[in-house]
Amino acid sequence: MSHRCGPGRAFWCGCVAVLALSSCSKATTSRLPGTSVQTDIGASRPASETLAPIEAFDFASWNQRFTEQRLTYRTAESRVFLLCAKRKGYTIHPREVDREPELFEPDLPDRRKNGWHLSEAAPPDTVELSEAQQLSSFEDLFGTTSDTIPIDQGLYRGTSQVGGCTGEAIRAVYGSNDVWNDLANGPYRIHNAATAFDSAPERDSAEAAWRSCFQQRGYRFESRDQAKQSFVERYKDHDANRATIADEEVAAAVADAECIIASGLVEMKRHGVEAYLAQLSPEAQAELSRMVDEHNRVARDAPRIQAEADKALGSR
Fold first, then answer.
1. Which of 20, 41, 96, 133 has the fewest CB atoms found within 10 Å of its own CB?
2. How many CA atoms, within 13 angstroms, populate the side-chain half-sphere of residue 84?
3. Comparing C-alpha atoms, which of 71, 117, 96, 68 is closest to residue 253?
4. Is 226 exposed, middle or buried (0-12, 13-18, 19+ CB in 10 A)?
């Protein structure tokens, strides 16, 4: 008999059921990057440009090139975790790793194909546990309770498990806990700090322009979150025509993206990131440069690591 539970529903990440690939946190649950995969990585850019080294602005702004490259090592991490779990005798359920939210410019080609990705609702990678495996699963997959490190995302601080298969994946993809911590949590801390430099008048003007643009296209929503939530609710209706809803989601997501660009929201974010970078102390500049260098190294090696893990998973 086996059990299933969703990711991050309780303290210890629900480790007595099907374990979603989550990084367990004592303060709160923090998902391990690489748990849910967009198959057309870099669809809006040539591969040579997608894999080109990023710079400090890319890292702080979370622009498309940065998030596409993050996806490569989040996916590699997920695959190595699954390979370790499978080697230890667990039944695994690989899924695709989700694209992270757009925090800078919208990806129009992806919007035209997938909308906001609301229709997928695919479960994350999971590891299925038998009754006999439940007692040993946490240590096997996440390590002992002493295998924790502090994490700081700026608005959230806690601890994360880095032992077991999680630790094996971290070492394979990142080389060390410190580099994993820099790349898993550092971007949140940097982006949150940069957001504080957004100009309030410029933001208010751009948001008003977005609302006017979106409403002129026939959408009566006050915010992007409200628009997306309306589709989430429609997908919950099991009697509804999901294909029709998906087509309408794509149309709304494309209109949203085009209005984001037309309204000046991207330029507002650009000005905020530039202001943040301009005021960094030499020490903060050195820290950011280190994380950018780590990102470029890990992103460069991730496709090879993923390919090797995928080959091993397919041969076992």
1. 96
2. 23
3. 117
4. exposed
Q: How far apart are CA 166 and CA 257, in angstroms?
A: 36
- The model carries a pTM of 0.78
Which CA distances in Å does 108 have to 89, 223, 225, 264, 292?
Answer: 42, 19, 18, 16, 26
Q: Are 180 and 162 in contact (CB under 8 A)?
A: yes
Per residue of the chain (316 residues), give pLDDT as tens.
333 322 222 222 333 233 444 333 333 222 333 322 222 323 344 444 556 899 999 999 999 999 999 999 999 999 999 999 999 988 887 777 877 888 899 999 999 999 998 886 545 556 676 766 666 788 899 998 899 999 988 888 899 999 999 999 999 999 999 999 999 999 999 999 999 999 999 999 999 999 999 999 999 998 999 999 999 999 988 888 999 999 999 999 999 999 999 999 999 999 999 999 999 999 999 999 999 999 999 999 999 999 999 999 886 5
Comparing CA positions, the residue from 63, 59, 58, 64 lying closest to residue 42 is 64
- Please state the domain extents for the chain: 1-35+60-194+281-316, 198-278
Q: What tokens were used for 216?
A: 């002129």
Rounded Cα distance between 29 and 75, Å, is 20
Do 282 and 120 contact (CB within 8 A), yes or no? Answer: no
H/E segment holding residue 151: strand 148-152
Distance between first and last Cα of the chain? 23
The C-alpha torsion from 13 through 15 and 19 to 24, rounded to 10°, is: 30
